Amino acid sequence: MTPETVVEIGREALMVIALLSAPILLTALAIGLAIGMVQAATQIQEMTLSFIPKLLGMFVALAIAGNWMLGLVVDYTLRLYDAIPGMIG
Fold first, then answer.
1. Which terminus has fewer CB within 10 Å in the chain: N or C?
2. Within the chain, which residues score under 50 in pLDDT?
C-alpha cells in the first residue's frame, strides 16, 4: 500500500463524513439562526429555548436524509472492501 493510496482513502473518508454530517448540521444552523432572530426581535434571551426545536429539526432531517446517508456509507464501505485485494498486492 502506497502513501498515495492511504491519502486517497483518508480524503474519501473525510468527504463521506462531511456529506453525512451536512444535513443535520445545516438543519441545526438554520433553526438556531431563525430562533436567534426571533429572540433578538422579542428580547427573550432564554438559552434553553432553542434546544427542543433544534432537536426536533435534526430528528426530521435524519428521518428525511437517513436513507441517503445509509446508502452513502454502504457505498463507501463496499468500494473500500472491493479495493482491499489491490491494496495488499
1. C
2. none
Q: Rounded to an integer, what distance in angstroms lies between the CA atom of residue 1 and that of residue 18?
A: 25
Residue extents of the structural domains in the chain:
3-88
The predicted structure's pLDDT at residue 89:
67
* Cα 23 from Cα 46, distance rounded (Å): 26
Indicate the DSSP class of residue 11. H
**Per-residue model confidence (pLDDT) at position 24:** 96
Which amino acid is present at 8?
E
Give the DSSP H/E element, type plus range, for residue 75: helix 51-88
Count H helices and E strands in the chain, helices first: 2, 0
